[in-house]
Amino acid sequence: MSDRWLVVGLGNPGPQYAGNRHNVGQMVLDELARRTGATFKTHRSRAAVAEGRLGTLPGGAPGPRVVLAKPSTYMNSSGGPVAGLAQYFDVPAERVVVVHDEVDIPFGDIKLKASGGEGGHNGLRDITKALGTREYVRVRAGVGRPPGRMDTADFVLKDFSGAEKKELPFLLDDAADAVEVVIVDGLLAAQGKFHGRA
């Protein structure tokens, strides 16, 4: 068993989806890759992958080794790439971190959990099925509820509003920080830091 972590950012492939709320997980992965200085390369597990070290351990040593991954499948078929990468890099489910959009959390807030249900998120449902367990970490980036009677599926497949785009860098930074804290200090420490801020 390796000591690596696998961090996955969910989204849909192609430039037409790149700025959608549904792709916020992949935007966070771009920020994490920037922090590690790693570059994404195509991997046979139907994903773009970057490898590096994330965060700093007490005493100043570089943080744990991470595999950053952006599945190249559509969101609802994320499970195959995630399970394939976990197997390829020998990462147990409890060291898999999935970053995704969450409509049940106000825009800009971050929540974290391990295990539990998928809350109607088809990408998570597919990952749970492929891994055969719910025991993986989720970093949930709040995108807020759709306005009025707009369908949730339509809402998440739209780009962030002009006002949200001004705040988006802070959301991406916070979500990337949350991933770092999970990996360096553990889930409870990350929950303590981010859940009290809403």
TrEMBL record:
<dbReference type="GO" id="GO:0005737">
    <property type="term" value="C:cytoplasm"/>
</dbReference>
<dbReference type="InterPro" id="IPR018171">
    <property type="entry name" value="Pept_tRNA_hydro_CS"/>
</dbReference>
<dbReference type="GO" id="GO:0000049">
    <property type="term" value="F:tRNA binding"/>
</dbReference>
<comment type="function">
    <text>Catalyzes the release of premature peptidyl moieties from peptidyl-tRNA molecules trapped in stalled 50S ribosomal subunits, and thus maintains levels of free tRNAs and 50S ribosomes.</text>
</comment>
<comment type="subunit">
    <text>Monomer.</text>
</comment>
<feature type="site" description="Stabilizes the basic form of H active site to accept a proton">
    <location>
        <position position="101"/>
    </location>
</feature>
<protein>
    <recommendedName>
        <fullName>Peptidyl-tRNA hydrolase</fullName>
        <ecNumber>3.1.1.29</ecNumber>
    </recommendedName>
</protein>
<dbReference type="Pfam" id="PF01195">
    <property type="entry name" value="Pept_tRNA_hydro"/>
</dbReference>
<keyword id="KW-0378">Hydrolase</keyword>
<dbReference type="GO" id="GO:0072344">
    <property type="term" value="P:rescue of stalled ribosome"/>
</dbReference>
<feature type="site" description="Discriminates between blocked and unblocked aminoacyl-tRNA">
    <location>
        <position position="12"/>
    </location>
</feature>
<dbReference type="GO" id="GO:0004045">
    <property type="term" value="F:peptidyl-tRNA hydrolase activity"/>
</dbReference>
<keyword id="KW-0694">RNA-binding</keyword>
<dbReference type="InterPro" id="IPR001328">
    <property type="entry name" value="Pept_tRNA_hydro"/>
</dbReference>
<feature type="binding site">
    <location>
        <position position="76"/>
    </location>
    <ligand>
        <name>tRNA</name>
    </ligand>
</feature>
<dbReference type="GO" id="GO:0006515">
    <property type="term" value="P:protein quality control for misfolded or incompletely synthesized proteins"/>
</dbReference>
<feature type="binding site">
    <location>
        <position position="74"/>
    </location>
    <ligand>
        <name>tRNA</name>
    </ligand>
</feature>
<feature type="active site" description="Proton acceptor">
    <location>
        <position position="22"/>
    </location>
</feature>
<comment type="function">
    <text>Hydrolyzes ribosome-free peptidyl-tRNAs (with 1 or more amino acids incorporated), which drop off the ribosome during protein synthesis, or as a result of ribosome stalling.</text>
</comment>
<keyword id="KW-0963">Cytoplasm</keyword>
<feature type="binding site">
    <location>
        <position position="122"/>
    </location>
    <ligand>
        <name>tRNA</name>
    </ligand>
</feature>
<keyword id="KW-0820">tRNA-binding</keyword>
<dbReference type="InterPro" id="IPR036416">
    <property type="entry name" value="Pept_tRNA_hydro_sf"/>
</dbReference>
<feature type="binding site">
    <location>
        <position position="17"/>
    </location>
    <ligand>
        <name>tRNA</name>
    </ligand>
</feature>
<comment type="similarity">
    <text>Belongs to the PTH family.</text>
</comment>
